[in-house]
Amino acid sequence: MSRRTLSSALPLICAAVTAAALATPASAAPASALDASASPSTLAATEQSLRDRLGGAYAHSWLDTATGKFVVGVTDAARASEVRASGAQAKVVAHSAAALDAVQSTLDQRARSAPDSVTGWYVDAPANQVVVSVLGNDAAGLAWARSANHGAVRIDHATEAPRPLWSIIGGQAIYLGGGRCSVGFNARSSSGARYVITAGHCTKGASSVSGTGGSIGSVAASSFPTNDYGLIRVTSGTALSTALVDRYSSGSDVTVAGSTVTTIGGTVCRSGSTTGWRCGSVQAYNQTVNYGGGNVVYGLTRTSACAEPGDSGGSFVSAPSSGRVQAQGMTSGGSGNCSSGGTTFFQPVREALSAYGLTLYTG
């Protein structure tokens, strides 16, 4: 090779060496340790990445309740370093996520054969087990749980059966003595006893009361005529008291924030189980209304909102602001309807709260 050829080749060789040096990665810095302070999206992305990479060795992930560390289970100890490199803490376990999920799926397929004493089953990721809950030591329930015949199954002894829960929401239907009215507001006493406030002409003469999800309780007090408010004592363990009022087809539920009175001319809206959500304006305070038959009620608020039978007792509230409202009162009665328009009166809620020593549920 001539001197010129050699010298012209040298820069190319040097460039290649330099490029190779640039392409050689430095030692990777360890990932930051992940814990409960990490964002949900970061934890989810890490979990998904490890699930994909570990495949059959993956065994679920969780935040350790004692340390807050993000932990990923792995069935192959040789793969634990991959978990640690991601910033998670590795825990070597016996059963993969796929194996545990398969056991739960098998139980799901047999669900209809489970006795009532079997209250449920789930994958306990930190324990690396499938837990079957059985009421007490019921023999049939224990036999059903053991029939899974898998080393990952653990039996827990429950002391109480689960039950479906439902919410008591302002404006929704309540049924009393063969009739239908509407929920006004949820309230509680200083001792924590729960109540529904509605119209007194609805509760008068009634005893047991049910709602959209089942039994609520029984009538605790009624004041009608003179006033038009009544109380239902909530004794059902499945009925949840809320600060919500149903807007029906007009939008999402609104939340009661207090009971500031709306000024005359201001907008108020009412919710009821017959005509849903309707709005109007306050026309007068302290009106005396003669419903006939000696049924005179004092101190009602007059509005231009319409209502129809079955709406009685339902929530009257201020115009919503950022999803929150001020409780005004409970629909009492009126004239007209929601086709041609009408006048509706409500019993101010503050009077009922004061009479019974109650506090509204607010949010």
UniProtKB/TrEMBL annotation:
Keywords, sorted A to Z: Disulfide bond, Hydrolase, Protease, Serine protease, Signal, Zymogen
InterPro entries: Pept_S1_alpha_lytic, Pept_S1A_streptogrisin, Peptidase_S1_PA, Peptidase_S1_PA_chymotrypsin, Streptogrisin_prodomain, TRYPSIN_HIS, TRYPSIN_SER
Keyword Coiled coil: no
Annotated SUPFAM superfamilies: Trypsin-like serine proteases
Domain Peptidase S1A alpha-lytic prodomain: 95-147
Membership in a protein family: Belongs to the peptidase S1 family.
Name used for this protein in its record: S1 family peptidase
Organism whose genome encodes this protein: Actinokineospora xionganensis
Lineage: Bacteria, Bacillati, Actinomycetota, Actinomycetes, Pseudonocardiales
